[in-house]
Every structure is written in C-alpha cells, then in structure tokens.
Request: fold
Amino acid sequence: MKTEYQYTYDANGNLVETRDLSGKANVDKYKMKYNHVNQVISVEEWKKDKVNKKFDYTYDRNGNLFNLVYPGQTSYYYYDSVNQVSSMMSKTGENESQWTEYQRTPSGKVKQATLPNGTQTTYSYYEDQKIKEMQTKKQDGTLLQRHSLEYNENGHRTKDIATLRGADNQQMDNTYRYEYDARDRLIKAEKDGKQKSVETYILDANSNIVEKNKDNKFTSFQYDRNRLISETKEGVKSDYQYDPMGRVEKIKEGEQVREQYNYDPFDNVTEHAKTDKESKNQIKTQFAYDSLDRTIAKVEQAGTDKAKKTKFDYLGTTEQVISEEVADQITRSYVYSAWGERMAMIKAGEKPETSYYGTNTDVDVELLTDEKGDVRGTYGYSPYGENDESLFTGVDKPDPNNPSNEMYNSFRYSGKRWDPNTKSYDLGFRNYSPEQGRFLTQDSYTDAGQFKSLVMDPGNANQYGFAAGNPVSNVDLDGHMPAYSEFDTDPVMTAIYETGYHYSPPSFSTDGKWGKRKVSKETMKRATAHVDKLDKRIRAENKAAAEWKKNKSHPAPSKPKSQPPPKPKPPSTWKAIAHGILDVAGMIDPTGIADGVHAAWYAFEGDYENALYTAAGIFPGGDAFKAAKYSKNVSSTTQRAINAACKCFVAGTRIETEDGGKPIEEIDIGDKVLAKNEETGEIAYKEVEWLFQREIDEIYEIHIGDEVIQTTDEHPFWVVGEGWIRAKDLRKGDIFETDKGKKLAVDKIVRKKQKATVYNFKVKDFHTYYVSNLKVLTHNMCKWIDEDRIPQASETILSTFTKTKIPRVKGAAVYENDKKLYHLDTLHTGSGAHLEVYDKKRGRHIGEADPVTGDIAPDTADPTKRIKR
Reply:
C-alpha cells in the first residue's frame, strides 16, 4: 500500500497541517494553531472533512501551560513565583477533581510530590544536587518504596539500597552495586537480596556487548560493522539478516526462520512474524502509523479468528497516548503532568480502576498504586531493561501456566510501552530490544545537518547501540542520541527529558520529531519587535542629539522661558518609567540614539545634571560619566535588568585577537577579535565597539576534554545542527565547532555558586567571537532587555497608598488601600512588572494590577495564593 503524507508550515517553521493521503488512517488531517510566541493553542483531528476531536491549550502570562482541555478531560497547572509547577488538577468526565501537589527545596529541586491517592514521595540531595534518597509512603506512613544512592568521583551511581513493597504486602529489600570501565561503561551489575543476581558485560571498542554473563548463563554476540550477525545463548545460535537499509529483517536458528520483520519507508515495523515452537505456525503482529510517525494501531494474531486490534489515540501532536481502544471501546486512558510525565491510568470496565504510577530514580515504572494508595502492582528491571520477574507482583505478575496473559500496564522501562510479541520497547523513532541491549535499526536523520551532528556525537558512533554502553547513567531520549541522565539530580527533569517539550514546540523537523531547541528568524523578529519600535521613535526625535554629537563641548541648552518652575509631581508617571527604559536602552545600546533623545528630554524638563550625564553617553569616552551616574542612581531592579541582558565570561577567558590570544578582561575598544558571520560563514577579525562588566554569584562550567569555559547561565554558544543554545541549556554530547571547522563534544556542564567579575564586549558587524584555547564560537549577546522589569515601588501607584508593617513579600514592601493589600512583583519577565492584589480581611489573592493605574486585570486571580497578614 502506498504511503504518502503532506506537511504544511507557517513562516516561523511551525507545522500547521499534516495530511495522510492513504484514506485508511484513523485521522486524515491534523490542523494546528499557534499564539504569537509560537506555542500550540489548538490541535484538531479531521476525518472525512469533519473535526472529530479538538485539543485546546491555554498559557499563563509567563508562557507556562495553564489549562489543557480535550474530550473527556480537563487539566489545570499552577506555578510558583519562579515558574515551577506547584500543583496540578485533572478532572475526567463527571468524576471528582484529582490534585497533585509539589514542594521544592531552596535550589528548586522537588522535595515532595503528593498524588491524589495520598501517597507522598520525598527526595533528599547531596551538595552537588544529585539525589541522595527517595522514598514513597502511603498516607498512613507505610513505606512503599525507597532508594538510597551512592556515586563515584565521575558521578556514576555505584550503589542503590532499594526497598519495594509488593502487592502481597511483602517487603523486598535489595542492594544494587555497579562497576564501570575506564570509559565509564557498565561492566558489572550485582543485586544482593533474597534473590541474588550478578550480570557482567564485555564490550568491544564500539560499546557493543560481546559477552553477557547473567548468573553463569552466557550469551555471546558477533558483529560486522556494528551489525549484530549472530547470538549464541546457552549453546543455541541465532543468525541475524539485514535488508539493504541496515534493518533487522530475519532471525534464523539453523534454516528455520524464527522471526521476520517488514518495514515501511520510514523504518517503522509494519509486521512482525514469529514461529511458534510447538505448532510451527507463524504468529503475526501488524502495526499502522500516522503522519506524525506514531503507532496508531496494533493487530495481534493478525489473519486469525483470534485477531485483536488496539487503537492508540494521542494528546494533540505529542507522543503521549491518552487512550487505547479495542472494538471501538476505550479500554484505558491516561493523565499527564504539564511536562508530559504519565501520572495515572484509568482502566475502563463496569467499575473503572484508577492506578497511579510510581517510578524509581530512572523513571522506570516500579509501582502502581490504587485509589487508596495500596499497591496494585510492582515491576523490576535489569540495567538494560530486561524484566526482573522476582520483583513483579500483583496485576502483572507472570503466570507460568498462561504466559500470554493480557498486560494490565504496558508502560514500564523508561516509562515506554512494552510489546510482548516483538519483545521490544517503542522509544519513539526506533524500537529497542533489551535482551540484546540494542536497536533493531540504525539511527538516522533525514536532515543532513542533524545527521552530521548525530554521527559526530562520541556516544553515538555505534548507531545500533543503546545509551553508549552505560544504561545506568545515560538514557536514550527518543530513539536518537543518548544523553547523560539528569535523573539522579531532578525527578521532574527526568520526565521532561523522557517526553520532550511538546506543548510549545518552536519548529517541526522533517523526520517527524519535534525540534526541541530551534527558533526561527521570524520568531526572533517578533520577540524583539518592541526594540525596533523604540528605535524608530527615538530616531524621529533625535535632532537635538545630532547637534550635540557634532560638538563635544556644546553646553546644555538653557531652560525654555515658557517652562514653569518644576512642580512636585507623583513619581508614578509614565515619564519616570520611560526614563528608566531609556536609561537602560542607553546603557545597552552603544549607538547613542537613546542617550541623545534622553538628554534632550531631561533638559526640556529642567534636569541639567541628568542631561549632562546622559549626553556624555553619546560622546567617545563618555562611559566614565555614565559609570559615575549609574553607580549612584541606578535602581537595584534596573541594574538587575541590565545584568540579565548581558551574558559574560570570567576573567582569564582567552579571546582570539589579530595579535594572538588575550584575556577577556584586557580586551579594549578598537581591538580586533576573530569573529564569524553566522549567515555567510565568513570568518574575519572585527573591531570591538563597546565593553561591559558586572558581578555575579553563579557560573556555569563547560567541560570539553581538559578545557573548562566559565560563563553565565544565559550566554549562547553555537551548537552544530541546532544553532544558538544558552549555557544552562547545553547537554553532554552537544557539538561545538572551532574556527578551523573541528567538531568538539561537550563532556559535561557544571553549575557552581561562585562570586566572580565577568566581562563581555560588542563586536562590530558579526556580533560573535571565538573563546578559550579551543576557539569555540559564542555570541556577544548584550542587547535585549525586558522593559517591564524597571519600575520601582516609588514609581508606581503604591506611592499614594499606605505602607504596612506586614513582612515583605519577594523582597517587596506591602501597601494598603481600600481594604486591599498590594505588593510589587518584578520577577515575572514574561508578564512584566505588576502589582499582586489581595483581600485584606482573608488574605485571598484577587488578581494582578497595572503598576501605574492600579487597575486589576480580569481573570488573573490565583486561588492557590495567600498573603500572611
């Protein structure tokens, strides 16, 4: 059957429509709509020119997903002051609302998570923020699971003291120990408990498992160019054959074909056939896929009178299954968090059953609890994902007399769906076989740039391999490159990495997966449109500035005779706020345009001191004047905004100049540094136009071999195949490129609390430069500023209210007026500075108000917020 899909994109690269032209799909067409910052606001599923299903997404003022509505279910997500999820509410049909609550440590890590059935999972951390211990208890304090972890000097887990309570209420205690080779690859995993087990691995240079010894049962493997060609298990040899595309086609025992695979043009398995040992009949399983490369149907025992077809329905355009159907009846449905973690499963029937997922520190499903918090089922796995049946209890406990029993829960290792017929996990782009510890097909991207980045990754040289030979510390996110696991540092990041950022995808790549960290040029133009508008207004009024620029000694203009003497005026005026904006614009923008109009404005108001200070900014050498002014007059909030706009490096960072290497703190205006035009690829020495320095208390270390680059969290680096990525968003394996075109992989990213002076500068024309002894490309980003963060309490309507003695909130004083309490909130860069308003009597949150007018915006009340009076 011919498979043909059509894709349509908007100017920002967002996928707006997909069509399946086969006419046999569950959905003929998907239509997506986006808001002005490219976040999905609706997804429609069409069949025969009719909308069958619609998903609606609503975001808060900071861009966080607030409300998700789709047929039969509604979810709300609530956030704290730093945009971390504090609670979520889900409601299915007419059922009672289900709440999940989160508490966090001062550093933002999850401290406690409470599920709707009352079970609580708590976390403690080492000083480097790796998980020290996690434990889950019922509401009555009964321990359900616990993991106490230890690590080696390279950050790899060496010991896990684990406790798991089974569905039979028996406690299972095990201690796991792990050993690694010099390349940090797993070579031994030992379980010490009631049922002891030892598993060792011998790996070749490409991290293929050459020999596996599990409890003295040996399995050996032979390879040809990383393709598994034979497997010998307890004396029985299996031979693997491949098609011309490098995909496993047949597995044979002697002349007998044991298993056979058929694929579509997109490397998806369309049919799997295996020979029954007793009847010698072929048992076939067939699969169908949609235009987004997702499994939409599975037929077991295809071609027989026992054929069973299961349909999978997804959450919008994500890979999160929201329901499964058999014979057009929903058999299971699922609930997800804001970041895509699978929270609960609802099994249909006369009496529906809700089960809540409990995971270990690797996000492997380890526990299912029922509505009361009692254990419904438990699971266990080897490092590579094989079932440890000694830990299976309850609903999915294996039955030797009926091994083909229907699974109660199919989501298991890494939270992925297990298929017992193919004995593989659906990891998204490819199927993974845990018994062999490898994929059935080799990794690939249709985009040449992405594919180059893929094969250049040191951990992905073996394109059939899994987790670079270390499934304890690494994880394969979506069937592509392995990445260093964040699971030992933050359980929420675990789920985010596993599922991706699906609710606000900035672009869609041709291989059918979300481009996780790409932003189109059109999007950047939208994001900075306010800067362009400000620039146009300033240029139109810049005649006075032009005159000053011609003559450095030009005196400040005298006050116009018609100008009345300055009168006392309330500071909460638009002029005061606008001056703040222009102060920052003049500091950030070295062109002098903002300074010129600002000086004229100050002079017109009769403020000669400010006029002189500001005018100095448009003259060469005027920085000393400006520094003197800002050292005493810039508000702390304005200074924070300036600091936030400039991304910098610590002293000693090597900068490549036309005179050789030079520490960044010694760079001066007029120096020529090596830079690159990111659009044309031209590399040349370009002049430094402007300098900047500031103090910080946190740095990010980027480790590449023996080289360590110390920078601020937001500083962008050029990553091959992806573009500009902020330091805090870099990951192990990201590829940098030197001025000579050499590719270098990031080994690790380390975040440190450390006070330091940092430096940056503006490069003429190209706005980039090369840093460190390795000469990697970075941006001179020091331009954009969120104007909404500037106002102070004295510049708002709060100056007309009564200041109270109530303790400060988020560092801001609390004011009273008309039986309401107010405080200024400047922390939300997405929504801008605003006033938080509360009812004085009960302390309930009323809404958010304009800082100048005091008008309360509609629909901004947050019932989760309270103020302590």
